[in-house]
Design goal:
Shape: flat
Number of strands: 14
CATH topology of the largest domain: Rossmann fold
Distance between the termini: 98 Å
Strand order of the largest sheet: 4-3-5-6-8-7
Pfam family, one: DUF7870
Largest sheet: 6 strands, mixed
Number of domains: 2
Organism: Hevea brasiliensis
Number of helices: 13
InterPro entries: DUF7870 (IPR057192)
Helix content: 25-40%
Order of helices and strands: EEHHEHHEEHEHEEHHHEHEEHEHEHE
Domain DUF7870: 222-394
Protein name: DUF7870 domain-containing protein
Structural class: alpha/beta
Length: 395
């Protein structure tokens, strides 16, 4: 230390100055308090950002979406933005909107205004001759009635957007579309790209191409099936009627009215003593949509008569003779029957399958003569991979 001329005190260059800081615990309390205050002050901004993100990416229609006339600006902008991100609509496209009462919604659409989309309203299509062939890049149509007109005005490579529930009737003769987008809002929205000019086919290849289109939509819907059980349920649970009502049925997943099929068929492959209860279950629980189903029973021979379950009728041959690819077929069958159908490639004739797989732990009792349960799960997985809406059946 040294005294300065002005009476102050200075420090030599080798002197250390030590300052005592507050306790570290006090500093932690102070820093956390400051952070909390900043977070509280920014909450309104965070809330507005989250609200904006929700409105643009997760907007959903009301759960009761039976009224397909409900479309507002938020839904339309969210859908169009999603399609743009998928590369299905782009700046400068010419779009046709076939939907009554949508004019005001389009006028307020931020997406359409920002992307210079050339718009044409087709709410009143009384003057269809005024619309030239292949004149639109994008067609938005709910409640499609005249698919021939829409196909005529849509360019090759253009996109048709509609509800999944409109597809069975609207595209039953069209094979020149491919599904590129499926997303569930309140109803399920599907976008199809026109791959080539329409060719009206009247032979079996037309049905095959149509079925390929329907298969893509169906595979996407199969994600909504109930979870597979990784171990067999207890006997008291498996035999309860409540357990058999837990299925997520295919018509519900597809929002399918079942009107667009030439026939609807239910086939029960079971023992004589089981057929009445199976038919009663089907009539009571399956969502037939008030459509007539033809029902058939293919009888199995009990194991006391044969070492393995056998059929009085060959199921694969029966299917080939009695049902077609474009018909809606529901079946309940045992694993051995299904494996044979898979080998003979007749399983593709079945849209929805209730699979009964007798296994070594059936009803909680080990039976060495039965197959291992993992084999049942493997068969279930193969069927799902083939696009079959398969459910586990217990009795």
């Amino acid at each position: 230390m040294k005294h300065l001329p002005d009476g102050g005190i200075g420090l030599d260059s080798d002197t250390l100055l030590v300052t005592k800081l507050p306790d570290s615990q006090v500093l932690r309390v102070v820093s956390r308090s400051v952070f909390l205050a900043v977070f509280i002050l920014t909450l309104p901004c965070i809330g507005s950002i989250l609200k904006e993100l929700s409105s643009t990416s997760n907007y959903s229609l009301p759960a009761n979406d039976s009224d397909s006339d409900f479309i507002d600006v938020e839904f339309l902008d969210s859908l169009l933005l999603d399609l743009a991100n998928e590369g299905l609509i782009k700046k400068g496209d010419k779009a046709l909107f076939v939907k009554s009462g949508i004019g005001a919604v389009i006028d307020n659409s931020r997406f359409l205004n920002a992307n210079e989309i050339d718009l044409v309203l087709g709410s009143d299509l009384g003057q269809q001759l005024l619309f030239h062939n292949a004149s639109f890049d994008f067609v938005f149509a709910f409640g499609i009635k005249d698919i021939e007109f829409l196909d005529r005005v849509l360019k090759v490579g253009g996109v048709l957007v509609t509800q999944l529930s409109d597809l069975p009737n609207a595209l039953q003769k069209k094979s020149n579309y491919k599904v590129f987008y499926i997303r569930r809002y309140g109803s399920t929205i599907v976008a199809l790209k026109k791959t080539r000019l329409a060719i009206e086919l009247v032979d079996s290849s037309a049905r095959k191409q149509l079925c390929e289109l329907a298969l893509q939509a169906k595979k996407a819907a199969l994600n909504g099936l109930e979870d597979v059980l990784l171990e067999p349920p207890r006997k008291v649970l498996a035999t309860s009627r409540k357990f058999l009502k837990k299925f997520n049925y295919l018509p519900d997943l597809l929002e399918d009215s079942l009107e667009g099929y030439p026939r609807r068929v239910f086939v029960d492959v079971s023992l004589q003593e089981e057929k009445d209860s199976v038919m009663a279950w089907f009539n009571e629980n399956y969502p037939t949509r008030n459509q007539k189903f033809e029902t058939y029973n293919i009888e199995m021979v009990p194991e006391v008569v044969s070492k393995t379950l056998a059929r009085r009728v060959n199921v694969s041959n029966w299917l080939l003779k009695n049902v077609r690819q474009d018909e809606f077929v529901v079946m309940k069958a045992e694993a051995e029957v299904v494996e044979e159908m898979t080998r003979k490639r007749t399983i593709d004739l079945v849209d929805e399958l209730f699979l009964q797989c007798q296994n070594q732990w059936q009803n909680g009792e080990e039976k060495k003569s039965k197959r291992a349960y993992w084999e049942c799960l493997a068969l279930y997985g193969r069927l799902r991979d083939q696009g079959i809406a398969v459910h586990q059946w217990w009795d």
